[in-house]
Write a structure and sequence with these properties.
By secondary structure, this protein is α+β, with helices and mostly antiparallel strands. The protein has 4 helices and 8 strands; from the N terminus they run H-H-H-E-E-E-H-E-E-E-E-E. The strands form 2 sheets. Strands 4-1-7-8 form a 4-stranded mixed sheet. It has a 4-stranded antiparallel sheet with strand order 3-2-5-6, with no helix packed on it.
């Protein structure tokens, strides 16, 4: 199949969909931030009253001042929780708008042990086109070696057959710079496709292999 015909989800129809989704996201973002501001303002008057009451009570009752301060702290924590929740909801909505399930693909990287291969970087290609690259710090590499999993790419693809190529660069057990590569053919349906690239130590060959696991949600 012609790779140019496959593309990477940047066709005209999909471009219009993403543009429309982006415009909607802008209005949605504005609405959510107005909601955040309104939520923050509502307790503000109560906090101001509580603060005034605390000042008045401080003159007549020291214990009352302590109670009011506790109430203010509780209100502030409540506001903080609301803002965090709204930000989380906004992030989820943003991903749903920019990467709908019908076109979404996500690629993850994980590392098993890492005795025979110390990961330095990864490069991803879809249908022979570069789509992502990542250079790892020591801290990020250790997080992967301890069982972490990294979402290295999220994008859009039209339905059909596609090819994913991953090139890992690192250092082997003898300190030499080496590369490990894998090519994976997959079909994009109207469901989200998630691909995990696993760097696993091969005890028999004393080297790392790249294994591919695909999930369709």
């Amino acid at each position: 199949m012609n790779n140019t015909e496959q593309g990477t989800g940047q066709g005209t129809a999909q471009g219009n969909t993403v543009k429309s989704s982006t415009n909607f996201k802008i209005w949605l973002t504005l609405g959510l931030f107005i909601a955040i501001f309104w939520s923050a303002m509502q307790p503000s008057s109560a906090l101001a009253n509580a603060d005034n009451d605390a000042s008045a009570n401080a003159i007549t009752n020291g214990n009352g001042s302590a109670d009011s301060q506790s109430q203010v702290a509780s209100e502030l924590e409540n506001i903080k929780s609301q803002v965090i929740k709204l930000n989380r909801d906004l992030f989820i909505l943003e991903e749903d708008l920019l990467f709908p399930a019908s076109t979404q693909i996500a690629v993850f990287v994980s590392v098993d042990i890492g005795r025979f291969f110390t990961l330095d970087s990864v490069e991803l290609k879809i249908n022979q086109q570069n789509v992502a690259g990542f250079l790892y710090t020591q801290r990020q590499r250790r997080a992967l070696e301890k069982g972490g999993i990294q979402k290295v790419y999220m994008g859009n693809l039209k339905m059909g057959q596609h090819q994913l190529t991953a090139i890992f660069t690192g250092v082997d057990a003898e300190g030499r710079t080496v590369q490990r590569a894998v090519t994976h053919q997959f079909e994009k349906t109207d469901e989200t496709v998630m691909v995990e690239l696993k760097l696993e130590d091969n005890e028999s060959s004393y080297r790392a292999d790249v294994k591919v696991e695909e999930w369709v949600l």
